[in-house]
From TrEMBL:
Species annotation: Vallicoccus soli
Protein name: DUF427 domain-containing protein
Domain DUF427: from-to ranges: 39-123, 161-251
Pfam families according to UniProt: NTP_transf_9
């Protein structure tokens, strides 16, 4: 899904190849500047405000923001007395966040002796989930920090998509929208008119994607088979995913998706 996940160039499962002169460590770390201003809020108060944000990319992990320690409001973070070993960053010093009477344990950490990546000196990593709200410039960030190397693209398609559950057709469309997301197989989103609504039952499940928005789910029942949360849609998608607004996509054990008569990649 990024430089270091999925099929990204620094991931162990990278899709491409480097020339023979390129040498990577077993666990590369890549730190870069973030041009956007980032603010974080705890109990309604801004406790992080930085125009000097760095982003760390690390193998098998989502990228995270690191902030100069002086861009975190004084008195909010305090050493917890706990540490954690981290290979390859080094020994992490865990920090609690305190605001009013509220304490968030292990809300952040720093690396007092960052031998593997000296540029981490003087920086602190504040966990995304430790604060209540984050803004990038004046736009809310949900889920986790947005990866600058992650793309979502949508294209109208004339492919013939058929979805079966328990051997029974639950959707049949020749006008899907095909969504391409970095490091992931393509997904096909179908108009609701091409889906047999009697096989769908609304689920309470929701998930959040920083690039597409909030997904709502439906359980599929057909041919004696029940697939929990086997269909989903984005009713209020973010701008880059506007073309799939209200359309349905399908995935899960027991769901068969075929495209032009062949199994769809990444659906089995």
């Amino acid at each position: 899904m990024s430089l270091t996940l999925g099929t990204g160039p620094l991931a162990p499962t990278r899709a491409g190849v480097f020339d023979r002169g390129t040498v990577l460590s077993g666990h590369p770390l890549y730190l870069e500047d973030v041009p956007q201003r980032v603010r974080g809020y705890l109990d309604g108060e801004c406790v992080v405000d930085s125009r000097r944000v760095r982003m760390l990319h690390e193998v098998a992990a989502l990228p995270v923001w690191w902030f100069p320690a002086e861009d975190v409001r004084a008195g909010v973070l305090a050493p917890s007395g706990r540490t954690r070993d981290d290979d390859p960053k080094g020994a992490l010093r865990l920090l609690d966040a305190r605001r009013g009477g509220r304490v968030v344990e292990d809300a952040a950490y720093d690396v007092p002796e960052p031998a593997a990546l000296p540029a981490l000196a003087g920086l602190v990593q504040v966990r995304f989930g430790a604060l209540d709200r984050w803004l990038e410039e004046d736009d809310e960030v949900v889920g986790h920090p947005r990866d600058p190397y992650h793309r979502v693209d949508t294209r109208r398609s004339g492919e013939h998509v058929v979805v079966r559950v328990g051997g029974e057709v639950v959707a049949d469309s020749t006008r899907p929208v095909k969504l391409f997301e970095t490091g992931l197989p393509p997904r096909w989103y179908l108009p609701r008119e091409d889906v047999r609504a009697e096989h769908l039952r609304l689920s309470p499940t929701t998930t959040v994607c920083p690039y597409k928005g909030v997904a709502t789910y439906a359980t599929l029942t057909a041919g004696g088979t029940v697939v929990e949360d086997g269909a989903w849609s984005y009713e209020e998608p973010f701008a880059e995913s506007e073309q799939v607004r209200g359309l349905l996509s399908f995935l899960g054990g027991g769901v068969e998706v075929s495209v032009d008569g062949e199994p769809a990649p990444g659906t089995s």
